[in-house]
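Purpose: get a first structural picture of the assembly so the mutagenesis plan has something to point at.
Setup: two entries, given in the order below. No constraints added.
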Amino acid sequence: MIEIIDTGPLNTIQDLGRPGYRDIGVTASGAMDPLALKIANLLVGNGEGAAAIEVQTFPFRLRFDETTVFAVTGGAGATLDGRVLPPWWMQQGNAGQVLELSLSPASARAYIAFAGGVDVPIVMGSRSTSLRGAFGGMDGRFLQRHDRLPLGEATALSVDGLGVVPPATALAELFPIALDGTLLIRALPAGEHHLFGADAERFWSQSWKISSQSDRTGYRLSGEPVRPTEPAEMRSYGIVPGVVQVPPGGEPIVQMSDANTAGGYPKIAGVLEADLWRLGQARIGSRLRFVRSSHADARALDQAIAAYIDDIRNTSQMVARALKTMTGR
Amino acid sequence: MIAPMPQPVDNSSNALETSPRMAPALHRQPVISTIGARAFLLEAPGHFDLAPQRRIWALAQALRQWDDLSEIVPGMTNLLAIFKATPADPDAVTVRLRDAWGRAESIDIKGKTVEIGVIYGGEHAIDLAALCDRSGLTDSEVVRIHHEGTYTVFALGSAPGFGYLHGLDPRIHMPRKTVPSLKMTKGCVTIGGMQTGVATLTGPNGWNSIGFADLQMFDPAAAVPAIMAPGDTVRFLPERIEL
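Result (structure tokens, whole complex):
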């Protein structure tokens, strides 16, 4: 068990979500930065999709009831009983120790994984919190002070202290940032792209600011509006996170993890899945530009990310075995 | 130049090429686009009607045999096919989807009938007056037209268990509101354009409410979480009319 001592709103339990139910209107949910979630899980010896805590409002504090192996990834400063932990780090917390996460200037969300995973009931194949549907996670709501979370059975891995090079560094050449700090997000044109005429080109060339009306459901972008040359009469269609829709006001919305399952606004682009985790870490007020990409790019990125994750899985298991041998544990 | 005489529709295999203008809407090509790299959207040609929707259901059934798909999301005369991995050759996917559409026969799903008791009017019917203004009908006429209709569930989406219902009488069509209600109550019986439905979540909603149904439309813990399924028939039974 762990106990939440201090939390802001909107911190939830998430795993990789519940895809497969969009045809009955159920949002997939899941971590906004699935890459960070997977790595946190691998570091503590879990399967990559175990349930963890997604922290997006800080400070966040929890206390361990018993000895627990945990990892913190994504963007946050972390301390254990006041001692600063390295970024993207796993180690053991002892009974009574307090883990505290504080806001990082460059990122939006952090993940805390525990050996054994957070063991809340599985609803429709997932432990992810669906805030909109009010189910999954902790009774379908965000975490509150004094919540006590049960953990699953921990597997063998029992290294104390292990870190990884974060993906933004390890894969820096694959995830470019413009010289002025603008995030470059790769996307493909979507169904109504051609209806935007000259505005379609401006959609790609101008930089967009992530407005304060942005959350797990979607990011509303501000900038000079783009509009179709004639009104598009749309019928509701299924959507996935990353779809960039343009409501009548002309300022795009990028749907994120808690995206609706269907939409009716014209869609101008769709973000590559390989870049969605970077959007998930983009802070309100930061700027991004969309870069026109291709299926070939998408495949190359998917493969590079998969190789990076495989590498961490193999290395962490290898290190654990080696340390076990050395310490005779 | 004299316009050509109308000819009988040629149903032979080359009808598509020789007389596109004469071909019924369903014989035209669907439009296929992408959302990101893994999801492909096929939009049926022709009107928003039962015939193309039946063919979408048939396409959904056929696509369930494709083992490289992770999810199939039928929409309103369209279908989103989500692949497990980014396809190497997106053009080949487009061809496969187009072929599957070409082969999809219209199917008539033998759905169940769902009867929904409705309190028409009253505190939840916040848009009934506006609908009367727009249609020129009295409130009791609007209510009668709505509950006398027989509706077909075209697709589920938007919110858990929410069914988009087709079959609304054109006299009570009503565009979505430009400013949505911020907190419409779960259970509101609503009209959005040419569609009707029952809100399954409390929250922002741009559809127009004319009544209320006290029915649990979705239960995440149930073996079959959603009451409605595509192809079902829905009838609204007036339990009470508060005008």
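The two ends of chain B are 60 Å apart (CA to CA).
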